[in-house]
Amino acid sequence: MPHRPPIRTAQGSDLDALVELEKRCFATDRLSRRSLRHFLSAGQHQLLVCGEPVQAYILLLFRRGTSLVRIYSLAVDPAWRGRGMARQLMEAAEQRAHEHQALFLRLEVAANNHPARALYSALGYHSIDTLPAYYEDGGDGLRLEKRLVRHLTQSPRLPFYAQTTEFTCGPAAALMAMEHLQPERQFSQIDEINLWREATTVFMTQGHGGCSPQGLALALSNRGFKVELLQSSDCIPFIDSVRREDKKQLIAAVHHYFVEQLAHTFTRVETTALTTERLRQALQQGYRTLLLISTYQLNRNKAPHWVWLVAMDDNFAYINDPDCDPDDRRSAIDNTYLPIRLTMLDKLLGYGKRGYRAAINFGNK
Ligand SMILES: CC(C)(COP(=O)(O)OP(=O)(O)OC[C@H]1O[C@@H](n2cnc3c(N)ncnc32)[C@H](O)[C@@H]1OP(=O)(O)O)[C@@H](O)C(=O)NCCC(=O)NCCS
């Protein structure tokens, strides 16, 4: 058995060696010195290394509130390959994922990277998606996943639409669910903006307002879907988030208009505690469900946010979250079929001091 140095957490003094290793291992898509420095500081990530100076590393990203671990990068110095170092680091990653009670690990690999693909396949990773022209050199990528809980089936392929503005999470979540219902349709930014123009509250804490449950329900009903609006109370959503009286008045006026218009449609409005069980029932009825959540548990921002609730099983909910980091084109990987414990989902539901909950169920007529 070849000698392998133990795995340790990287520290600040490893930075130069990591930058050099990155250069030796990757021709394109390298992590910059700045990024590596960031990953050496505390955060929702772990950088594990072997050797002194560093001979190999693996970088894991966690996402607060979720049960997904992403292997963001793995590299072994060419001089140290073929000694089982990558396997050892991958096993350590799995161990850390277990400690985080993760449900699955995900990563991307270049389709032509045969050594890495052989490694991942030997460790039980399966391809869940193809990523055309994913890398800087134009090469295709594959999205791989390993499930850590045996009884679960593989993640499905799902439409994904990343919101193109800060305030269009509702329309973006709706568009992916619409594409799931009507796969022949393809949506673009103008569809996103048109939905928003119909459904926005105009104002919110800062910037443009997002979409209210009533506005979004109305916009979907006007597009010919069968719609059900679930709300925990009939208060005016988001009105508490603005201070100025004139803004409050406008939010109220828009809300009353939505409510009045909804009454002329076949939309069923249900005032309910909106438990996870009620959501499960909606999915079992075949609805696509859009959820209003508070992002506090996910990113410490108390912002209202819309996601598509794709599925639920005994312990987890799976969401498509349209909010991707625009500087990280890889982040859409994390945002598809993102597993969240049901206990966590219950905390995510409920926005603002009133803990207002809302969901929109919709389907083809
Ligand atoms: C891919 C990489 C991490 C493998 O590192 P390594 O330490 O040499 O791999 P290991 O010795 O732990 O090998 C583990 C398994 O991977 C597979 N593997 C590794 N190198 C391989 C090669 N050149 N050809 C085929 N299979 C290979 C084998 O299944 C091997 O198991 P085995 O030894 O029982 O046959 C390394 O080649 C590397 O750093 N490449 C450049 C960076 C990179 O591509 N990173 C992955 C990005 S997704």
TrEMBL record:
Q: Which UniProt keywords apply?
A: Acyltransferase, Transferase
Among the GO molecular function terms of this UniProt record, one is: acyltransferase activity, transferring groups other than amino-acyl groups
Q: Which superkingdom is the protein from?
A: Bacteria
Every N-acetyltransferase domain range = 5-149
- PANTHER family xrefs: ACETYLTRANSFERASE (PTHR43420)
Q: What is this protein called?
A: GNAT family N-acetyltransferase/peptidase C39 family protein
Species annotation: Gilvimarinus xylanilyticus
